[in-house]
Amino acid sequence: MADSPVINIQKLTYRSHGHGEDYFARVAPVAAQIGGQQLGYRVVRLPPGKKAWPRHSHLNNEEMFFVLEGRGTLYYSEQQFAVAAGDFIACPAGKEHAHQLENSGDKELVYLAVSTMHQPDVMLYPDSGKYGVIAGCAPGGDSQQRSFAIFGREDQGVNYWDGE
User: Fold this and answer.
1) Is the distance from CB of 65 to CB of 88 less than 8 angstroms?
2) CA 96 from centre of chain
3) In this structure, what DSSP letter does residue 51 have?
4) Residue 65 and residue 87: Cα distance in Å, rounded?
5) I need a surface site. Which of 52, 94, 108, 159 has the fewest CB within 10 A?
6) CA-based angle 150:155:159, to the nearest 5?
7) Does residue 111 contact residue 25 with C-beta atoms inside 8 Å?
């Protein structure tokens, strides 16, 4: 249980994550700190030219983003949208709602990410042909609480009866 249902954005603690040249973000979890249980929320800070995660869709969770500062590009399905401070972005669950935010501005892009926390969740990555399955903790939650997580390529599955 959280000590308080309130926290100021200035008091958040960020952790950095990234991969290669394209991906880098500072992410601050919020929900667990203030007692959130059925929604996950966190603040994401992207430097110019960076993305936080590969373009993906969730089959079991809906996401919403609210741009607090800066501007960027939303890659949504096969379309692109310019986004800026004050914009709300809806990313419903479903294969057809693949999404990604990139900081295409010259200042830091800061946004609030909110999501349902249903699990297990299946994520699809259309640009690389990968999938991910996570159980025990919804994506965005504490990875130490996961009871199962696997990532693979969609074309490398096995038959249900394989090995039986």
Assistant:
1) yes
2) 16
3) B
4) 8
5) 159
6) 80
7) no
Give residue-wise pLDDT tens across range 40-61: 999 999 999 999 999 999 999 9
Cβ–Cβ contacts within 10 Å for residue 76, how many? 19
User: Which residue from 131, 121, 123, 137 is spatially nearest to 151, judged by alpha carbons?
Assistant: 131
User: Residue 49 in contact with residue 64, Cβ under 8 Å?
Assistant: no
Tens-digit pLDDT profile for residues 132-162: 999 988 766 677 888 999 999 988 888 888 8
- Of the chain, the end-to-end C-alpha distance in Å amounts to 44
- CA separation for the pair 43, 112 (Å, rounded): 5
What does the chain come to in residues?
164
Which residue, 93, 115, 142, is CA-closest to 38? 115
Contacts 24+ apart (CB under 8 A), 8-17: 9/43, 12/43, 14/43, 14/45, 17/52
Q: Which of 114, 107, 119, 36 has its CA nearest to residue 72?
A: 107
